[in-house]
Amino acid sequence: HELRTPLTVMTGYIEFLQHNADEQLKVPLDKIQQQTVRMNKIITELIDLAKLESAAAVDYTNVIDINALLNDVYNEAVALDRGNHHIELVIENETPDNVLASHLNGSYEELRMAFSNLLTNAIRYTPEGEDIKLFATSHDAGITVGVQDKGVGINYEHIPRLTERFYRVDEGRSREQGGTGLGLAIVKHVLDRHNASLHILSEPGRGSTFCCEFPLSYEEY
Ligand code: ADP
């Protein structure tokens, strides 16, 4: 809040100047406005992280319908993408028992935020027209929820560090794509809180797959 209020005031003045300033000030004012939008995004994500760090443990008695959750994430991303990529949603069950495929336990809002971050990253780091898949697979050891893209990929030496705050492979590209360097740190936190882990497979120039592995909950063994 302390950071957000001055930024909101500044945004108001910038808008005023944009409407009233000389032509020659248009470009610098637009640049200033873009930077305030970026700062706002960083603040929002830092607040999300701080909330995750200080929040009480997630409520495991809360049952989440995977189908509904992934459809939410998918629909929001498709709307944002405006047809730039072929995005598909695939929910599969590799176990004979269908029950496993249908639910996760924990916080709907936190998991929505984590999967949404993975899907928007795929959109941002994948050239237009390529395929992106949001998927959930139920198997003997638990449930995998992930995002696969055919984007720029990541060199193996960066992979262990991707979930660090503000770590970026290519700072210029991240900035250009509206990145903050906080998305995967948020994903990692949410997964830790759900006793789940993140696995990243990637090859430069070919694409990446980010898998969230949810083990079976105690009563399912
Ligand atoms: P950012 O806001 O910069 O995207 P993230 O924490 O979400 O921050 O991701 C960290 C870095 O990981 C990114 O800057 C980018 O270099 C890399 N990255 C994340 N997702 C992908 C992806 N799907 N394809 C290629 N690189 C990715």
Keywords:
221 residues; alpha+beta; five-stranded mixed beta sheet; binds adenosine-5'-diphosphate
Describe it.
With 221 residues, the protein is α+β, with helices and mostly antiparallel strands. The protein has seven helices and seven strands. The strands form two sheets. The protein has a five-stranded mixed beta sheet, covered by helices on one side. A two-stranded antiparallel ribbon has the order 1-3. Strand 6 (197-203) and strand 7 (207-215) form a beta hairpin. The longest helix is centred in the first third of the chain and has 29 residues, at 26-54. It is globular. It starts with a helix and ends in a 6-residue tail after the last strand. It binds adenosine-5'-diphosphate (ADP). Residues 121-122, 125, 149, 151-152, 154, 162, 167-170, 174, 179-185, 208 line the site of adenosine-5'-diphosphate.
Short overview:
The protein has 7 helices and 7 strands, in the order ααβαβαβαββααββ.
Main β-sheet, spatial strand arrangement = 2-4-5-7-6
What is the helix tally?
7
Shape: globular
Q: What distance separates the N and C termini? A: 45 Å
Mean of residue pLDDT?
A: 91
Major sheet size, sense and barrel closure: 5 strands, mixed
Beta-strand proportion: 15-25%
> What structural category arises from helix and sheet content?
alpha+beta
Ions, cofactors and other ligands present here are:
adenosine-5'-diphosphate
Percent range of helical residues: 40-55%
H and E order: HHEHEHEHEEHHEE
Uncertain segments are none
Radius of gyration: 19 Å
The number of distinct β-strands equals 7
